[in-house]
Amino acid sequence: MMGSNISNREACLDTLEKTHSKVIPWLMIMRLYFAFCYLIIISGCGSTLKLRLDMNQSQEDVPMLGRNASREFSDPSFFSFPLTKVWEYDASAGFGNGAPIIVNKTLIIGTLQGELHAINVETGKRISYNKNLSPISSSPVAYRQYIIVGLESANENLISFNTEKGDVQWSKNIGGVVSSPFTSDDLLFVGGLDGTFYSFKAQYGESNWKFDTKAPIYASACALNDLVFCANAEGIIFGLDKKNGEMRWKFSTRHAVFAGLTVQNGKLIAASRDSTVYIIDAVSGALERKIFVGDKIMSTPAVSNGIIYIPSLDGSLSAYSLLDGMMQWKFHAKNAVNTTPIIASNAVIVASLDNHLYALSLKDGSVLWKYDVESRIKTTPLVWQNSIFVAAENKTIYCFRTEQ
Predict the structure, then answer these.
(1) Which of 62, 68, 169, 388 could form a disulfide linkage to 160, CB 3.0–4.6 angstroms apart?
(2) Whole-structure pTM value
(3) Architecture of the domain made up of 48-402
(4) Which residues are within 8 A (CB) of 284 and not within 5 positions of it... i.e. 6 or more apart?
(5) What pairs with residue 350 in β-bridges?
(6) Which of 129, 128, 136, 132 is nearest to 112 (CA)?
(7) How confident is the model over 133-162, as pLDDT tens digits?
(8) Are the beta carbons of 397 and 389 closer than 8 angstroms?
(9) Residue 292: enclosing H or E segment and its boundaries?
(10) Distance between CA atoms of residues 322 and 180, nearest Å
(11) Are the beta carbons of 321 and 309 closer than 8 angstroms?
(12) 210-266, pLDDT tens digit by residue?
């Protein structure tokens, strides 16, 4: 729009020059001014701000979605309710489903406007910022001094940023990325919209192996010991050898798998579009049991202490026994639950499209605390050191802590 206005102004100036026989000095100055502004606008559109961070990682960090390669959506935090909102951050752009990550007290999150924001977890102030010009739907992953992020589109849609230098370390085109990558044993694993599941050497981006699943990959993968697990849009789940990518087993749910995978206690948990959660032996690929919840599941179930917590688009969060599949309790929000629940030591933290962030009792699902952010929440919250971070559809990130 700005470029169009500049063109119109230049056209008017051309007309004035043809009308008058004399060249007016101020007219030439105006032409040079508009030309200068145009160059600034064009150069600004393609610029990328450097992402510089101190990536001194510790055991307390959450460097990837679900904290580790098995996707454990749990945290030892203990909360005393009610909680207090201690800061909010305006990102000026919406967010995808993937949760933020935390490294060295820095919260890192991508936006649907193609930006990476690095925020101080104590103050809520911006530390660094990078614009990629392509939507980021998933969670980034931190590896050593690198931040690796998947983009939905663009020619290069898997990018590793060197946070010491502030620029790009390497980039790849894998057809677009909406699933959240993870690292394990110095390797990076990620599924592409081109239907291929990839393993790269995380530091330099060199190909380790790739496996063609023959359908787009939307679900975030996970790993256990020497196995990695991925699922595609045709509902086929694969167990692959972590070192060479050879298929150990495959299992078909017969419906698309969009929710991410998680593996706990040797059991792979997969939620399908057929409103069913499949509990599969992670080593053999054999089905152990199915849990039918009654509506579609778009986010990863969470597991802790033998209980599986399943979010659903009917607004429910249900707790089931992992051992026998029996329901323990069910909570109903006023709109869809499209985020993964996070299990703290004394509460389940879950967000809903009804604008609320909830803390529920582990025992019976009763509401211990809730907060209305006045906007839908479709991004999975993050729990870290007795704090809750949640990104809402109003382009704002909120931090909540126990009252002092």
Answers:
(1) 169
(2) 0.86
(3) 7 Propeller (2.130)
(4) 249
(5) 358
(6) 136
(7) 799 999 999 999 999 999 998 788 999 999
(8) yes
(9) strand 287-292
(10) 25
(11) no
(12) 999 999 999 999 999 999 999 999 999 999 999 999 999 999 998 999 999 999 999
